[in-house]
Amino acid sequence: MRKAWMLPGMRSPVYRFVGGILTIALTTALLHGMRAWLNTSTVALLYVLAVGASTAWWGLAPGLGAAIVAFLLFNYLFIPPYFTLRVLHPQGAIDLVVLLVVAIVISQLLGRAQSAVARAQSHEKETQRLYELSTALIGQTEYGGIARTIARGAREAFGASAARLTFPGEGDTPLAVAEEPSGGGVIAGAPTVRQEILGSRGRMG
Question: Is pLDDT of 23 > 90?
């Protein structure tokens, strides 16, 4: 899911992964400075919150990457013996496992929630387009007007630079041909995408 607040360059996978790692790095710097007042359970909880924020801001894959980085930094800086990845005490191992599992579960849940929101928004936009198209077609009886309305709707729906709609007629003569934007000369050569319009009577355009 793309974030509306992101600039175009910020939407690249590399940039989002870097953003997720930087979120954990800033959290680590803050926690390490306060280490004398925090126990390992509190640090683990705050790391989980940071991983959740990374997933919410940057997406599921960067959130999972942030969870792994948080796991390694938590082990290296906050689990005795410090500045090594070795774990000597069972409680430290339990804290590490709990952090990793909870962080990954939180990332998965947030990622699924974001995907569901994106699907709902896409469905809402499709429903809105169909409503607007149906409203525009009401009362039209001329093939030319119907073709222009559908061509305009197809261009907006697919985000195309131009669209052409043809209603086939008898022989080689079409009932109507419409281009959007109108004016002629916009579409040259074969179309990039061809889409048949099917109705109860078969192929309509």
Answer: yes
Q: What is the pLDDT confidence band of residue 11, given thresholds at 50, 70 and 90?
A: low
pLDDT at 2: 45
User: How is residue 141 written in tokens?
Assistant: 């009886």
Residue 5's pLDDT band (cuts 50, 70, 90): very low
pTM for the structure as a whole: 0.60
Residue 199, beta-bridge partner list: 202
